[in-house]
Amino acid sequence: MKDMMKLSPSTSQFLVSLAYFPWSIKPIYGILSDCIPIKQRKRVPYLIISSCLSLLPWLILGLSQTLRTSANMLTSLLIVQNLGSAMADVVIDAMVAEAVRSAGPEFAGDLQSLSWSSMAVGGIFGSLLGGYALSNLPIHVIYVVFSALPLFQLVSCMFVEDSPKRFQSAIDEHNNQSSVTAFSEEGSGEALGKEGARRRKGTRKNNKRRPLSKQTEANEKSNGSFNPSPSLSLKSAFFSLCTAFKQPAILRPMAWFFFSNVTIPNISTVMFYYQTEELHLEASFLGTARVIGWFSLILGTYTYNRYFKHKKLRDILVFAHVGLAIISLLDIALVLRLHIPHGIGDKYMVLWGSALADAINQFKMMPFLILSGQLCPPGIEGTLFALFMSINNLGSTLGSFLGAALASALNISTAQFDNLALGLGAQLIGTLLPIGFLFLIPNEVTGLTS
């Protein structure tokens, strides 16, 4: 976008934000995965579909010069690619949410840490590959290489366990009703956890003692499996989703996480332009620098799980946003060249900023992920967890659009970065604003959210 299409920073920021829009409608993929099984399977078929959606756009861009040099076509294909990535993410999130609820709150942080650490290891190798590719390969070859990665994801679907649906719909309906009762009576994540524990014990006893009814046996013989109409499943899921989400124990924290992203104008693409055009840092260096960011993400995940998960959630979020504000101060110092008299190079400022930002962000994301996983009623894990993540992603997307509008209003262009410090100042103020809304988070809740 910068070198070949010669787009302005604000235009690139807008198109990148638009390309990531599929991450803001994740409940749609969750509903499909939870309620409409394919060949009686809820997860693997959607992993296969999503892998194909991620694979094809990179192949098309690698093979067609016309499409990859058109801003509209490039954005359209990136939207399709992100559609596939977001759908796969929903399926994986649902599987992690199921594991979190089954393992219990004491292991929730460990499971989320394992999930994020695995992603970080992949990110390290991906960043190293990206840095090498930018330095040694033409752009169309890079796109073809990108297509190989979703291909590996497609092959990995062979190793994912996914039992047939069979009686899952009936069990889900029973669990959904139990979840609704728990939310109505207690209205808290703790109550849901206790009710879920009792429900699991009762289910095991019932499975041992209660034989199948004659009607169920007849249906089993005639249909081979219990599979009600998708419309009934969708209606049940939508009802459970609305009932669960309107509870203050869920609605208020989710509202805070949404506003905490909306108030921060994201100008990361503008900063990329500044770092490459004004500071003359190689794009390959910035790609490789992400390795430091991924390592710090692992460190942040470990530090949170080891030292912070027992502290009050409000204190953790204050720490995270004050830390992110300090990162904005580092960016302002970089743009104003305040580090030059101290003999600190531009690359070191960029590396430290990237490392600290990724580590501190984990102190905000880990409680959000654990909270989301524990509050998901059984049977609609993919849908409700996807709704939680979509709220977070939609806030981030709106923050990116706000950043694009801010860059345009400040007349920041490829050759004009005089007002970039003002934009970073606005970002700093926006980062501190969510601290004033922390009353939405219950005071007694800890990083374990239980």
From TrEMBL:
UniProt xrefs under Gene3D superfamilies: MFS general substrate transporter like domains (1.20.1250.20)
Amino acid composition bias (Polar residues), ranges on this chain: 213-228
Top-level taxonomic group: Eukaryota
TM segment ranges: 12-32, 44-61, 140-160, 255-274, 286-304, 316-336, 383-408, 420-441
Record carries keyword rRNA processing: no
Keyword vocabulary terms for this entry: Membrane, Transmembrane, Transmembrane helix, Transport
Residue segments, region Disordered: 178-228
Comp. bias (Basic residues): 197-212
SUPFAM superfamilies the UniProt entry points to: MFS general substrate transporter
Subcellular location: Membrane
Family statement: Belongs to the major facilitator superfamily. Folate-biopterin transporter (TC 2.A.71) family.
Protein name (Swiss-Prot/TrEMBL): Folate-biopterin transporter 4
